Automatic annotation (TrEMBL):
Organism: Paenibacillus cookii
Glycosyltransferase 2-like domain location: 16-130
PANTHER family, A to Z: GLYCOSYLTRANSFERASE (PTHR43646), GLYCOSYLTRANSFERASE 2-LIKE DOMAIN-CONTAINING PROTEIN (PTHR43646:SF2)
Any one GO molecular-function label of the UniProt entry: transferase activity
Pfam family, one: Glycos_transf_2
Annotated protein name in UniProt: 4,4'-diaponeurosporenoate glycosyltransferase
Job description of the protein: Catalyzes the glycosylation of 4,4'-diaponeurosporenoate, i.e. the esterification of glucose at the C1'' position with the carboxyl group of 4,4'-diaponeurosporenic acid, to form glycosyl-4,4'-diaponeurosporenoate. This is a step in the biosynthesis of staphyloxanthin, an orange pigment present in most staphylococci strains.
Organism superkingdom: Bacteria
Length: 251
């Protein structure tokens, strides 16, 4: 296929989209299709960097077929993986998204619009699960409420902002194995306040994420296992981090 994404090193890049990927052949195509659609208003200005994290499937081949940059990483740490992608990025604006999520066609234009106002340091997005149930709602609630009390009412799921500001706050905290996203949001929020800007939420575009963990472990999984919630609040529990992100890997 003709690549929908920027390639080479000679043209200016507006957006760099960073995607951590660990054996994501079932999901990465949907994610990249959505980013390609969102990139249409910016021909040649959007690069996608897929972080190939010890994949044993066709994730890298699929990403390369779209014209995405693929970078191998060995870390078992999402902060290190994302930071490596940010370090390699050539774009003025960083966007991070998980491989099992996808966005509406207007996501990049909305991010661009909000940054152009000069009011926002960056931020998160409005998001939804691909399906709903009472169990998913309750599981989300028992996780979100404690994190809200610890870090404040900040949106996560997909992060956006100028690369210079990601660099200014030191990127993602590599001491965090879980909840590194909301911890990053908290520091970006504080950096924004220091610079007279707000932490924003994209509300006119939507990110949807898969329910694969609920499909695997049950919709009530977080309600039934409060230890996972405690691990998210702690942030550096290797056992639960491995269960959450590397459960299919032999220990």
């Amino acid at each position: 296929m003709n690549s929908p994404f920027a390639s080479g090193t000679d043209q200016p890049i507006k957006f760099s989209v960073i995607i951590p990927a660990r054996n994501e052949e079932k999901y990465i195509g949907r994610c990249l299709d959505s980013i390609a659609a969102a990139a249409k208003p910016y021909p040649g200005q959007v690069e996608v960097i897929v972080m190939i994290n010890r994949c044993t499937d066709r994730t890298a081949d699929i990403a390369q077929s779209y014209g995405a940059v693929t970078l191998p990483v060995e870390h078992k740490n999402l902060s290190q993986i994302r930071n490596a992608g940010i370090g390699a990025a050539r774009g003025e604006i960083i966007v991070t998204i998980d491989a099992d999520s996808w966005v509406t066609d207007n996501m990049l234009t909305e991010i661009d619009r909000m940054l152009q106002t000069g009011k926002y340091i960056g931020g998160g997005v409005r998001s939804a699960f691909e399906r709903n149930s009472l169990g998913i709602a309750m599981s989300a609630l028992v996780l979100i409420v404690p994190l809200l009390f610890k870090y404040g009412p900040l949106t996560v799921g997909l992060f956006w902002g100028y690369k210079k500001d990601f660099d200014a706050v030191g990127g993602f905290n590599e001491q965090m194995l879980m909840a590194e996203d909301i911890e990053f949001a908290s520091r970006l929020n504080k950096w924004g306040k220091q610079n007279g800007k707000k932490y924003g939420t994209v509300t006119k575009a939507l990110m949807t994420t898969s329910c694969r963990k609920f499909d695997q472990h049950g919709d009530w999984c977080l309600v039934k296992n409060p230890g996972i919630v405690r691990a998210y609040l702690k942030g550096n529990d290797r056992k639960y981090a491995d269960q959450a992100y590397y459960e299919m890997e032999k220990k």
